[in-house]
Amino acid sequence: MKRKISLVVLFVIIAALGWYLFIKPNDYLVSFTAKTFPGTINRTIKNWGKSMATNAPLKEYGVLNLEQQLKFGDTVVVYNWKIIPITDSTSKVKVRIKDLENSLMNKILIPFTSTILEKRSKKNLLDFNQFLNEHLKKFKVNVVGIDELKSTYCAYIEVKGLQSEKAFDMMKDFPFLSGFVKENNMKVNGSPFVEITEWNMENDSIAYNFCFPIIKPDSLPLNNEIKYKKFESKKALKAIYNGNYITSDRAWYKLLDHADNKDIEVTKMPVEVFQNNPNMGGNELEWIAEIYMPIKDSL
């Protein structure tokens, strides 16, 4: 009987050791809690990767899971990020780390000594946490609830690009669009807004209409770049964003989380109404944008 028990224990030990050395997908695990929602962490991981000395190829499996390759000298290390929502404003982050060239040796050494992989990983994740916390100081998002976007006629420009380029493109196009409206004596009917028409969350690219709301005149002046349309009224989840409009998309993710928690079906085609002109500068935390995520049933 004792022999059988010993054989079972030995088998379990060998199986566990075999799994640890040859099957376990990561060499090292780092976990921490972040005081923000998943979309902000997702975007910060991507920006942090770009800030590293070498380009970091990245695969995204939804907002909550990312795989990032970082190169240190001749060593390629994979960071598998998993973001776990805890509350509306808190998330758990787990980073599973694997050295593609020295995985087996790391697994052997890590229980007994502090390896280069372990030291580097701790430093990198501390740097990331600081990078994230500095970013969180630069904006605020407050979900208001269900509201209604009013209908209006508008003159608009069609634009395509990356989410991160939206604010720069707006600043470039604003003088042209506002100048055209003024030169043709059209009456402005509210604040300029962006209507997202396509959003690829994997590569962070968007297509949108940059719109100037106007009262429709009897005749519409022609221009090769400027088009006209009626923007229809619709119900939407609303948030107030304060901060640089470069990162106003953080509110998009916050609204998606809110919609998911409340079982509200939305379009993932946000509308942003801007109350400040970025060209005028000032304290960015005092800039205001109303962010709307249209509700499907209202369309």
UniProtKB/TrEMBL annotation:
Instruction: List, for all copies, the residue spans of the domain called GyrI-like small molecule binding.
Output: 147-296
Q: What Pfam families does UniProt report for this protein, alphabetically?
A: GyrI-like (PF06445)
**Keywords, in A-Z order:** Membrane, Transmembrane, Transmembrane helix
Residues annotated as transmembrane: 7-23
Q: Which Gene3D superfamilies match?
A: Regulatory factor, effector binding domain
Q: What is this protein called?
A: GyrI-like small molecule binding domain-containing protein
> What species is this protein from?
Flagellimonas maritima
Q: Which InterPro entries match?
A: GyrI-like, Reg_factor_effector_dom_sf
